[in-house]
Amino acid sequence: LVSSDGVVTRANRAFAHMLGYDDPNELVGRSTAELYLHPEEQRGLVNELTEAGSLTVDELLVRKKDGAGAWLMSTSVILDTEDDDSQVLVTGIDITERKEMEQRLARKGRMEAMGQLAGGIAHDFNNLLTAILGNATLLENELPAPRQNARQILGEIVNSSGTAAELTEQLLAFSRGDPAAATRVELAELVRGTHALLHRLLPENIELETELCDGPTTVKAPPAQLKQILLNLVINARDAMPDGGHLTISVDRVFSDGGSADGLVDLVPGDYVRLTVADEGPGIDAEVRGHLFEPFFTTKPEGAGTGMGLATVYGVVTRAGGSVYVDPAVQRGATFRVLLPLEEVPEREAPVVDEPVVRGGGETVLLVEDDGAVRRVAERILKNAGYEVLAAADGLEAMDIVRCGASFDLLLTDVVMPGMGGVELAEGVVRDHPQVPVLFVSGYSKVTLQSDALRAAHTDSLAKPFTPAILVERVQSLLEVARTRAQV
User: Fold this and answer.
1) What is the pLDDT of residue 233?
2) 355, 442 in Cβ contact below 8 A?
3) Model confidence at 179, in pLDDT bands (50, 70, 90)?
4) Which residues pair with 211 in a beta bridge?
5) CA end-to-end span of the chain, whole Å?
6) Per-residue pLDDT for 247 more than 60?
7) What is the CB neighbour count within 10 angstroms for residue 470?
């Protein structure tokens, strides 16, 4: 019971226990304002009830005895009394678990939406970088030796394009794309192998300790991206301890029975490898924790960070079937935990044999690209390498070229195009010309081949942005395989 001026006059044992009190009398005499986690949000109970018509149902964030917050589904009703001192009967149900689940789902939905946005930005940005990088490289090769100053300027453009390409790779790692191949990696060995590099990243006033478990810690993910995860977490920990402290990196195995725990992604029940990076900095409050893995969110001063580090961590980990979170139970510092599925290693893996690449030229390439700048630079690259080029602005135009009986030796097509995408175009081409190899070029998504015709054909993929040398090497390699098949 609560008086009209907001003072608790009576409480039962169940309500007291819900707020962490052993004795209900500990609540009696307290102002309801003391029980709100944010007292400024409280209004007079009687006034609120009067406005609502004597009965209100609210979701309240209250303060438990230990200071922690708890969500209550609260029902309040005015009790009729003989005097003017109205009493309010308040009942409550603890809905903290439900609210936390709602917040996790909301964060997960927000991250998925941002992933789609990041992937779209990366796709457009990669088209621009492909044109810049390709044209700059071609012009650099055309300049005579005396024009050294101009060559240096173009070299700076090429280097800057490479740096920008690294940023788009981080965007793709965050999004749904899959720009790098996943392989089996011993996570404990990776940490051990980067120990010297980590020491160079840390100042002398930070002590580094590693705790690596015995036995297998095999996960499946791109090795370079796993190393990037470790470096991002260590650099953040370093920046959180400008006055020095203790930094601990540990790798162990854990079993999860499913659910998301404190992570952003639900886990499939099973065995996981856990990477933990713990620092002794000031810690991370709950408000910041809710935004940590969003792209471009950073607490660092301007110029000190892009806000893509933890977003990259999130993208790599979730695509590998894992989860990442900040341990909220730590009283001091920040502890990041990354969980990745434990990978069963087969007894023996077949060795990979690299086949020699024989270079050729002079064939005809059907080039299909809806971005004009990318199409023009790809055409210049191929012609400089000695190829004939048939260029089309989209899949429909390319199909018209094919139907007119044009002869070509290779199809080079963008994947994402309006009207008819590259995969649909390739299916139509190889159905009638099964001997023609296909090179898919994409600045966004991984190419998925679903038709029998494409799976039987010889295909390869190339990520944007690419250099002229890489494009020519892929084309030559595909054409050489096609020639070898024709001779069999």
Assistant:
1) 87
2) no
3) very low
4) 250
5) 91
6) yes
7) 13
Query: What does the block give as tokens for 70?
Result: 């708890």
Q: What is the pLDDT of residues 84-98, one digit of tens each?
A: 567 778 888 888 888
Q: Compute CA distances 317 → 81, 118, 263, 323, 405, whole Å.
A: 60, 16, 11, 6, 48
Least confident range from 108-122, 185-199, 280-294, 435-449: namely: 108-122
Percent of the chain at pLDDT > 70 equals 67
The interaxial angle of helices 148-174 and 309-319, nearest 10 deg, is 50
Which of 62, 67, 64, 59 minimizes the C-alpha distance to 98?
59
Secondary structure (DSSP) of 408-453: -SEEEEESS-SSS-HHHHHHHHHHH-TT--EEEEESSSPP---SHH
Rounded CA Rg of the chain: 31
- Beta-carbon count within 10 A of 161 CB: 20
pTM over 0.70: no
Asked whether the predicted pLDDT for residue 304 surpasses 80, the reply is no
Give the mean pLDDT of the chain: 77
Q: Evaluate whether 293 touches 317 at the Cβ level (below 8 Å).
A: no
Q: Please, what is the Cα angle at 320 between 250 and 424, to 5 degrees?
A: 160
Greatest Cα-to-Cα distance within the chain, rounded to the nearest angstrom: 105
